[in-house]
Please model this.
Amino acid sequence: MPHTIQVDVVSAEELIFSGQAEFVILPGIMGELGIYPRHAPLLTQIKPGALRIKMPGQAEDELVFVQGGFLEVQPNQVTVLADTAIRAKDLDEVKATEAKKAAEEAMQNKSSKEEIATAEAELAIAVAQLEAIRKLRHRA
Model:
């Protein structure tokens, strides 16, 4: 049996995933992170994007969209505390596309730095959701 690591993905609303994994890949603020069993302890912020969990004995990875939050890694435990977490299969492409268009329009129509920053954050989330949907379709 391959070496595994316990993975828990938690959002403000619920526990999204809890189980053993061979590895986890997720979007860190400085780039993509790959976490394997016995990884060095780590605490970092994550950005919106797809979290990929490789479970033992399964060909398909579990994909979860995270909307930012924090990652804590211990040698035998990975905890993702996400602002929002949604299983990729539950993402709505139509809503994500509409949110992207609305954010793009908001960026053009806003004048203050705060409004522009908010619109940019909303755009980044919508683009990350669409990318997660694309990854899910690509593997199907």
